[in-house]
Amino acid sequence: MNLEPDDTSGAIRTRSMDSLEKFYNQRPDGSSQQEFLTQVAHTESGQPVSDAQFESMLGQIRELLGLTPSDQLLDLCCGNGLITNALAEHVERAKGIDFSHQLLSVAHQHHSMPNLCFQWGNLLRPNDIPPDQTRYTKVLMYAALQHFGHDDLGSLLEFILSVSAERVTILFGFVPDRERRPVLYDTPVKKIRNWSRRLLGRELIKSWWTREEFLEACAPRGLICSFHSLPANLLASGYRFNVRIEG
Ligand SMILES: C[S@@+](CC[C@H](N)C(=O)[O-])C[C@H]1O[C@@H](n2cnc3c(N)ncnc32)[C@H](O)[C@@H]1O
Fold first, then answer.
1. Is any ligand 1 atom within 6 A of the Cβ of residue 79?
2. Cβ of 11 below 6 Å from ligand 1
């Protein structure tokens, strides 16, 4: 995912929810694998990640979620459904939710499958999302937690638990690691640029996360967390991590 300070093509600016939604609604059009990756900012130095990188990302998601053919999968902030589609063939049924109409239209057009559906929803207001009858056994939120505030984690978990089966595995993937923030902002110029973006409310990454925040949110809900590095062939492995939560 291209969030390097020197490269603005994949910059996720977070001035407000409206501008973020607008940002994703204005992602480049196109229907090649490279364009799909660029639409959801899975890029490095402005270029889409390679097939091998994407495969290792997918492989790790499948492994950490422990997908089985009887699973019901919910993909929160699914974007254009590129990842949802690749996972859907390993489960019984899958659903993706996102608030970008444009990305959802790409998802409908290019990533539909008989056992997969997509739905509009704003995860900052999860209570407004109409529930369905399905009890989800696996829940994914990949490359999106940077858009949520620290106070939102509790309500996200409550929403997930409200739609989940008694036993559920949750994966927050590609989470910005607060302890590794200096890896991204590693020169005075990059630091100053980030400070000025922060002042303008246009930071590349709104929220950086600690492992303690997940442990504190999970413990009172009886959930167990474990933390996992990203595949080493991704640049983001230097400053992002995965959180698997089991309940
Ligand atoms: C970087 S993209 C990742 C998409 C997908 N998970 C992937 O990894 O390919 C982040 C996604 O989060 C979605 N998003 C951000 N905030 C959201 C919110 N409050 N509710 C729903 N979707 C949101 C954006 O529309 C975008 O599709």
1. yes
2. no
Measured from the Cβ of residue 134, the count of other Cβ atoms closer than 10 Å reads 16
Distance CA 174, CA 72 (A): 22
Helices 152-162 and 211-218: crossing angle in degrees, nearest 10, is 50
Q: Within 13 Å and on the Cβ side, how many CA atoms surround 137? A: 11
Q: Give the separation between CA 4 and CA 23, rounded to whole angstroms.
A: 17
Q: Ligand 1 centroid vs 182 CA: distance in angstroms?
A: 24
Decide: 145 in ligand 1 pocket, CB within 6 A. no
Helix spans in 95-168 (H): 101-110, 152-162
User: Strand, coil or helix: what is 31?
Assistant: coil
- What is the pLDDT tens value at each position of the chain, 247 positions in all? 544 433 333 344 444 667 788 888 888 788 899 999 999 999 998 899 999 999 999 999 999 999 999 999 999 999 999 999 999 999 999 999 999 999 999 999 999 999 999 999 999 999 999 989 999 999 999 999 999 999 999 999 999 999 999 999 999 999 999 999 988 888 999 889 888 888 887 777 889 999 999 999 999 999 999 999 999 999 999 999 999 999 9
Question: Of the residues 98, 207, 230, which should be mutated to test ligand 1's pocket, given the most ligand atoms within 8 Å of the CB?
Answer: 98
pTM score of the predicted model: 0.92
Instruction: Give yes or no for residue 142 CB within 6 A of ligand 1.
Output: yes
3-state SS class at 140: strand
Q: Give me the domains of the chain, ranges plus CATH numbers.
A: 17-246 (3.40.50.150)
